[in-house]
Queue: 4 jobs
Job 1
Amino acid sequence: GEEEDYWDELAVGINFNTVGGIIGGVAFRYSNKVTNTSFRNIALEINEIKHSKENRVAGYTGQPYIYAKKNHLFCVRPQYGREFTLFNKNPKDGVRLSAILAGGPTLGFLKRYYIDYDFSDVNSSGSDIRSVPYDPVIHSDFGKVYGASSFFNGFDDLRLTMGLHAKIAANFEFGKSKKTVTGVEAGFMFETFAKTPELIEYYENSSVYTSVYLTLYYGLRW
């Protein structure tokens, strides 16, 4: 294989994982060459963790909402790791394969889940529909749940929960250019929180999450 002739790499990626829904989040990674076969990685990942029991149902007006959901959990993961080349690309094409070990703290941000709920009095002719943090114990009348409120409600009241994460991954790099990088990172993520995040009512919430993930990335080298 060819000898690496660059020292720095900056890449951005879109993440897909088994606990984050359709698109899990985004990732940013800076890599600096230590030797010809090893790199120092500094990364930042921003993902959402969803409870496995989330169930989307139709509200009174047909607007969907997630039954019994109490909080969104957004994870900001500063990350330090090392990458080791296993197989280098041929000079003109091919795939470079490397292994990644990384980890760091997790800043978990809990955001209340809001719904539109009808508080109208049956004896009153006027309507009283309000956007409120969803509590399925209090807002138990399905006929009064109009649906989910704006996603942006609740960002003024985020609560921080700290955790730790670690990952192991295989990195497949494609492309013929030495100035750009295109690839796929596939791996396993382990994450634990000091306090159990309350994501959903009536089901068990966990302080430990494991997931399989895939990140498609593109970047520049110099």
Job 2
Amino acid sequence: MGAVLSSNEIRALIDSDKPLFSGFSDLDTQVQANGFDLTLAEVRRFNGAGTIGIDNAVRVLPELDLVVADDRGFFELDPGAYHVTYAETVSLPNDLMALGRPRSSLTRSGVAIHTAVWDAGYSGRSTSLLVVYNAAGFRVQLGARVAQLVFIQLSTPDAAGYQGIYQGEN
């Protein structure tokens, strides 16, 4: 049966020969009882429409415009949708998947992070959708912990692991 990893198991995987994470800033802060906090590296605005069809041949991702932080590293975000990139590189073995969740301080501020599944075998600096629902906007600082990955041990390893186009992204 699969199980959610504890902080001890996460730390052991970070310290292994094939580290679960690289590019992290503070393990004592980022490793949580049931996951690992991802920090904000980049914010972009959507500039155009995307297209998803029945196969990847017609996939078109929208253009993205970089949002520039102020001199203290804060992004001033108006209500709307943003594409965010995390600082950390995650490298999942073929027997481990992850689900991303927003940190509770975001939801208490009227902000959400929407994610896809981190498939077993995926490696890269991931991205997510950040939506500011708060009509007054939201300020977030470069390097802030904004999402938490929760890891689930698969009952058996996936033979191939993630094979999609986002392997090794960013």
Job 3
Amino acid sequence: MNEVIDFETYLVVSNDKFEIYLLDLKNFKNLYKKEFKYQSDLEKIDLNLLDEFLEKNIFSIEKVAGSFVNKINVIIQNKTILNLDLSVKKKNYSQNISDVFLKNILTDVKDLFKENYNQYKLIHMIIDKYIIDGVSYSSLQDQISNDEICLEIKLISIPNLLILEIENILKKYQIQVN
């Protein structure tokens, strides 16, 4: 089988169902879709069922794509996902807001998160709002002079243990998680 980069595979994992998709990026088509629903009394992902689901579907996807599945995009829907909202405020900031300034703030937030939530992996950092001198903006504004800036940031993270469990199942099929 030849490795073709015109396809992407997506796996959706939740407490009550699994879905897998093969997308043709060149022609914008969904070439393969399977869904498996199950009931569980636990609020936990049934990893044994996930393994069985993958066993039934990975070979079929590889057959349709004509190549091995080496990488997969995993979307996790689970109550163990941690969402945090926080604000960062800088007073007496008289310069224009630059990319370097934003990068430094976000790096500080990321480091603070890692220090306090080391059992989680930070997946997304989203700036929801820029508040500049008391005026709220949904996107960064150019050339605004300011004295005070506040960023409202949303952090989305997944427990390291859950990531490890899913990665271990996918390793059986020689698949890396994107």
Job 4
Amino acid sequence: MDTITATVTGARHLRVARNGQDAAAAASGPGWAAAAVCDGCSAGAYSEIGARLGAALVVAALARRLAAAETVEWSEVRAEVVRALAELVDRMGGDRVQAVVEQFLFTIVAVAAARDGASVCAIGDGAYAFDGATRVLGPFADNQPPYLG
């Protein structure tokens, strides 16, 4: 299985010496591919942590299912990622709500593709193109899209 990860720090973040909050991950194998892009909430002090972990966890969950030729049920992928992040937050100790707000608010746009088709799942804002049609997600009131956390 090949994997790729990437992040991009925007100009505004560079000017104020703040980490970028976007992350991407991808994996592929014989006859399948998976990718996820996550965008951390700019109000979170360290939301790049959640975005990076989220992208990696989503792609790992998709890769396991696709490599086993299983049907991807997005609700199961979401539940698996939430469980992994909840366990991490529990292990961190301290104020759970503060940990989520500071580090684990991020949006997700992900794709799972196999020889017989592809599907996209999104939580929050963003955009994607599928079969030549572009879909823009949002904007949301007060620039507050739904987050996985």
